[in-house]
Amino acid sequence: MDVNPLSNKIIGLAIEVHKNLGPGLLESAYCECLSYEIRKSGLYVESQKALPIIYKDIKLEHGYRLDLLVENKLVLELKTVECFTEVHFAQILTYLKLGNYPLGLLINFHTKTLKEGIKRFINQNHIDSYDQ
Q1: Entry's InterPro entries (predicted)?
Q2: What is the rounded distance in angstroms from the CA atom of residue 79 to the CA atom of residue 123?
Q3: What is the CA radius of gyration of the chain?
């Protein structure tokens, strides 16, 4: 599945989770429920996937952890915050770059409607991966 239809499907599943749970829970609860919905939909998802840092000729195994990685191409970074900050944006862009993933969704479940809490990020190195 191309990344655009994939991201649309994931947004729909995230909205389903938010409709059922509402705002106010811990990030880990949304992560588990969204992971469940993604698996149930037939997609492959990895939770808390290790993302090593490669610096010159060394590999640091204990780099970062992705909240969710769907179909080995869509990074999901989940938050439960009042509002996004520049640090959140930098975090997901760094994940896309380090893992060489084409697309990321930053999803804040601490919103009245989830539509207000979704931001999409593109790894510029993968522009050819998108539907035109």
Answers
A1: GxxExxY
A2: 20
A3: 14
Q: For residues 59 and 98, what is the distance between their CA atoms, to the nearest angstrom? A: 12
Per-residue model confidence as pLDDT tens digits over 55-91: 899 988 877 899 999 999 999 999 999 999 999 999 9
Beta bridge partners of 108: 79
The fraction of the chain above a pLDDT of 70, given in percent, is 95
- Return the pLDDT at 127: 65
- Provide DSSP, the chain: --HHHHHHHHHHHHHHHHHHH-S-S-HHHHHHHHHHHHHHTT--EEEEEEEEEEETTEEEEEEEEEEEEETTTEEEEEE--SS--HHHHHHHHHHHHHHT-SEEEEEE-SSSSGGGGEEEEE-GGGGGGS--
Q: Which token pair is 12?
A: 């729909």
Structure tokens at 48: 């808390």
